[in-house]
Amino acid sequence: MTTSAERIQHAVERLTPDLVSLRRDLHAYPELSWQEERTTDVVASWLDKASIGHVRLGDSGLTADIGPEDAPLVCLRADLDALPLEDTTKDPWRSTVPGVAHACGHDVHVSALVGAALALAEVDAETPLPNRVRLLFQPAEEVMPGGALQVMAAGALRGVTRIFALHCDPSLDVGRVGLREGPITGASDRITIALSGRGGHTSRPHLTEDLTYALGSLITQLPAALSRRFDPRAGASLVWGQVRSGVAANVIPASGELSGTLRMLDANAWHQAEHLVRGLISDIVKPYGVSADVHYTRGVPPVVNDFGATQLLRQAVADALGPAAVATTMQSLGGEDFAWYVESIPGAMGRLGTRTPDGPTYDLHQGNLRVDEAAIGVGARVMACAAIQA
Fold first, then answer.
1. How far lies 197's CA from each of 163, 179, 212, 222, in Å?
2. What is the pLDDT of residues 162-213, one digit of tens each?
3. What are the φ and ψ backbone dihedral angles of 250, each rounded to 5 degrees?
4. pTM of this prediction exceeds 0.70
5. What is the rounded CA–CA span in Å between residue 172 and residue 309?
6. What domains sit in the chain, N to C, each tagged with a CATH number?
């Protein structure tokens, strides 16, 4: 007797050439966060051809349900948006939109979820699925605090009992899926500190409020203080990316700015972070007499994979690809708004290998990112099997 996993495999194998074409189309016409109208239209057209009903989430994004209405509701999520950078590949399907590129693999995520949807619809037409499956094509993952909050506010996850997602991993060979229980990605906040004070000549620092020196103190002392105020197991990391101050070597400026990101793996520490950071900044700059205007932008919490959901995803990978396809993955301090879902719904995110074996290793958020397109079918099979495992 043919199992559901085998039927999913056969369906995805038949669909894969079309899914690759879909991915190339999405890659050629990327859209930024909250602008994914064409992308949503393309997904809707594929669902329409398979007679899968769907509900639009405003201008971009949609949900679609497959399976018995009275069964437990399981959600599979893919993100739609691209990044504001140039596609530097030479592929025939490279981005046609100047300054916009699918450099994080969301075109793969979308294509894999469409494949999972079509395969699940075929299986459900023969034998009712054990779960009702909600397909979530989410806008605006790449901007803080992420489109996930609007999806939840719209009630799109009401009644969902588990949620799953995959994210491209160009450091992992295609055909493998990286899994990890507990924190897998980090919380990510943005900090900008604007200092102001009385400037003057560098020969008379005692008559000024030496703002540049205060900036230097913040650069070194704030990360050091946080390393002693957070539990080391929180994995907190404050890294500065931008410093602006002064126009001449002999002038102490009257204004300056410092920006960076604070990331960590512990959700409880993340909820305390803003209050702690503001207090430490005030203490550090006080001796210099300058004023500090702190803009603290809370981003996303860490993605904390639920133990039970991770085990179900592990079984789905084994069913779809074999036990050897399961890989243990490292934690990352990169932010991901899937975290908002798993704060309240048991769920898990896996890392989808996109590297051609013995091929080059690319990096995410780079214009030269290339993926092994066999990952699309792999992702479709794993997501579909996860839906019937949960």
1. 50, 50, 10, 20
2. 999 999 999 999 999 999 999 999 999 999 999 999 999 999 999 999 999 9
3. -110, 20
4. yes
5. 22
6. 4-185+302-389 (3.40.630.10), 192-300 (3.30.70.360)
